[in-house]
Amino acid sequence: MRKCCLILWAVWIIQFTMAVEPPKQEVRGVWLTTIFGLDWPHRPAITEEACETQKHDLCNILDKLQKAHFNMVFFQVRMRGDVNFKSEVEPASKTISGNYGEMPSYDPLAFAIEECHKRGMECHAWFITFPVGSAKSVKSQGSWSVVKRHPDLCKLYNGEWFLDPGLPGTSDYLLSLIKEVVNNYDVDGVHFDWIRYPGSANKFPDKILYKKSGTELSLADWRRENINKIVYRIYDWVKSVKPYVVVSSSPLGKYSRIPRVPNAGWTGYETVYQDAENWMRAGKQDMIVPMMYYLHNNFFPFVDNWVENSNGRLVVPGLGAYRMTNGEGNWTLNDITDQIDYSRYYGGAGCAFFRCSNVVDNTKGLYDELVNNYYKYPALLPPLKWLDNSTPAAPEEILVEHINGALKLSWQKPKKERQTLTYTVYYSKSDSLDYTSPKNILVTNTRDTTLYFPLNSDTEQEFTFSVSASTRFHIESRPSRETYYYFSKYVK
I want to staple 397 with a disulfide (CB 3.0 to 4.6 A). Which of 33, 209, 329, 481 is the partner? Predict the structure, then answer.
């Protein structure tokens, strides 16, 4: 019976991918890992030339993501008690500059945000939450280490140091980092990884603290509530300052031991006291990006479980692109594309890939498959209607000029709009436009109001153009009035 189900599933996948074009709206994300320079940077910026190399390398990565029509980058800004932005709370990472506490001549986070925005991609600041380093790395950080500066907040467990979620000061400390990023940078989101207790957490050294708390909750529920309080507090503060900043996290891919998979093994709820479905039910997350680095029955039923309990929030399955490498599972390309198909069909709001290098380096042809098929056209980001559902005014029609072998498209921001807007340009090579099809999207999520469209000047051509505006909550206006343009190199 199980074999029959798998055959039917394979047949359905083939039919589905052949018949359906990519969706017009979805998250296409990637985790850009900076710890140990896994994705970037490849070497520290100890000279000005090395700084320029770092920036050049990052731009190359983002160029490839743009070509593949990605629209969201989770840029790792906090690793293990060290950061990639200007901070008064934690030291700059030595991965960036070569020495803890030293920033290069540029600000990596500010640069990443600017370059993502240039390419129509959002930049979400990705934080490792509770781990603060191995005993060796903490020692190498010296007086910069949070263990030295706030020993009362830290616990040593299995050779690793962690902030203790049960201590009120941990919430204050983490919020101080979030405040630096949200107040000082134009981030589109804050994203939390490792927002849980460590594996085999039954031995985590917090039993004395638990007894002192006087709670009537079980140890397991008390631990879950400790993390819940931190999640709630961070979410509420972010929304009070910049409501459009998306708050998300990457919990374990299996929330709990669901009836369809009672022997699920390692789960967020039971194993590491991570109650992510609670966060969505309470409206304290805008997006969940679970780390679903599993195959078949360890993947598909859990996608359903996340979507069914999402409370209307975005569920973006995190796919283990790294599992295609020989040392990590040797998955096939079809293992990944089947998961994209399933997530699209069963209510996922998109997908994110770990890691970035496995995408841009074209592991087993993944990048080519995305460019040529799955991400063939641009995609708008899904609307965040629970935050703000107000529709912006539409821009006026596009002005088209023929300049040096290209069409210059320009438009103006709607006069009555004061908020930051992004734009989607639609086009067709006929006298009509289908706004429902992604193949008619020229660009999306651009902040510019000018665009150059390459032109074959040897061929007579007709075009129709239109532009819409979107708020930072991804609410799209109606399209502008259409602009029809006919090109001929002959005077008629």
Answer: 481
Question: Which CATH superfamily includes the segment(s) 399-487?
Answer: Immunoglobulins (2.60.40.10)
Name the token pair of 398.
Answer: 């596009």
Q: Where in the chain is the domain with CATH 3.20.20.80?
A: 23-374
Residue 120 has which token pair? 């129509």
Take residue 429 and report the two structure tokens written for it. 């090579």
Task: Identify whether the C-beta of residue 39 lies closer than 8 Å to the C-beta of residue 61.
Answer: yes
pTM for the full predicted model: 0.95
Supply the DSSP string of 270-291, one letter for each residue: HHS---HHHHHHTT--SEE--B
Q: Which overall architecture, per CATH, does domain 23-374 show?
A: Alpha-Beta Barrel (3.20)
The amino acid occupying position 105 is S
Summarised one tens digit per residue, pLDDT across range 354-409 is: 999 999 999 999 999 999 999 999 999 999 999 999 999 999 999 999 998 899 99
Q: In the 3-class helix/strand/coil scheme, how is 330-399 assigned residue by residue?
A: CCCHHHHHHHHHHHHHCCCCEEEEECHHHHHCCHHHHHHHHHHHHCCCCCECCCCCCCCCCCCCCCCCCE
pLDDT tens profile 11-51 = 444 444 445 799 999 999 999 999 999 999 999 999 999 99
